Structures are given as C-alpha cells and as structure tokens.
C-alpha cells in the first residue's frame, strides 16, 4: 500500500543541530557511566551486607568454628568497605579527568586486583 503524496507521516522526532546533538550524546554517555559506577557500588554494598548477615546468622556449638565465622565476618566487612572506597575513588578520578588515562586507570587496576585477591582468599 502506497502513501498518497498529500498525506504526511507524523514524525515526533525533531532535528537537532550538530552541536546540540553532540551535547546530548555526551550527556547520555555521562549518565550511563554514572549509573554504571553507582550500581557497581550498590551491588558491592549489597553483597557485603548479605554475606555478613548470612555468616552472623550461622550458629554452632564448636568454639573453633565460631571463631572462624567471626573472622570471616570481619574479613567480609573489611573487604566490602575497601572495595566500596576504591570504587568511589575510581569514579571520582574518572569524572575529574577522564581524558587522562593514567590518572583514573591506575585506580581501575587496583580495583581489579582487589576483586581477584578477595575472591581467591574466600
């Protein structure tokens, strides 16, 4: 079925100027990065809380097992705090100077090593 030339299709989109389109694209990219970092921090906080609560609820009558669980709770809490602090520093460094790769990428490398080491220890 062909459209008649007199009928126009209603298009709700509008044409942006190149500079405005570039600004909108940069804002979208910035929003995506903010959401990515914010959700990373949130997920690590939730994982830390979940692990800590699960380990604290565990009851045992063996003293060695109890002391091991207490050490695991302390380790889990401290691991979560360190990861959240490093992630927040990484996010701040990226938004301060995203063009300088050495500036913010160093924190990214530290964060990946913390993840790997804490996974291997667990």
Q: Explain this structure to me?
A:
- This protein is mainly alpha-helical.
- 78% of the residues lie in helices and 0% in strands.
- It has helices spanning 18-57, 63-96, 101-121.
- It is elongated and about 70 Å long.
- The mean pLDDT is 82.
Write the layout of secondary structure elements.
Blueprint: H1 18-57, H2 63-96, H3 101-121
Helix pairs in contact: 1-2, 2-3
Summary, kept brief:
Helices cover 78% and strands 0% of the residues. By secondary structure, it is mostly helical.
Helix coverage percent: over 70%
Report strand %.
Answer: under 5%
Q: Distance between the terminal alpha carbons, to the nearest Å?
A: 65 Å
Low-confidence sequence ranges: none
* SS element count, helices: 3
Secondary-structure element string = HHH
The count of DSSP E runs of length 2 or more, i.e. the number of strands, is 0
Oligomer class: single chain
Structural class by helix and strand composition:
mainly alpha
Q: Averaged pLDDT, please?
A: 82
Largest sheet, in brief, is: none
Computed Rg: 24 Å
Overall shape: it is elongated
Properties at a glance:
single chain; 122 residues; mainly alpha; 78% helix; elongated
């Amino acid at each position: 079925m062909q459209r008649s030339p007199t009928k126009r299709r209603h298009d709700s989109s509008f044409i942006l100027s190149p500079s405005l389109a570039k600004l909108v694209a940069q804002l979208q990219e910035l929003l995506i990065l903010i959401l990515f970092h914010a959700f990373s921090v949130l997920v690590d906080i939730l994982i830390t809380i979940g692990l800590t609560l699960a380990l604290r609820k565990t009851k045992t009558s063996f003293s060695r097992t109890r002391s091991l669980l207490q050490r695991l709770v302390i380790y889990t809490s401290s691991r979560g705090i360190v990861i959240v602090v490093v992630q927040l520093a990484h996010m701040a460094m990226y938004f301060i100077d995203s063009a300088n790769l050495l500036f913010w990428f160093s924190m990214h490398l530290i964060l990946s090593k913390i993840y790997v080491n804490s996974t291997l220890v667990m």
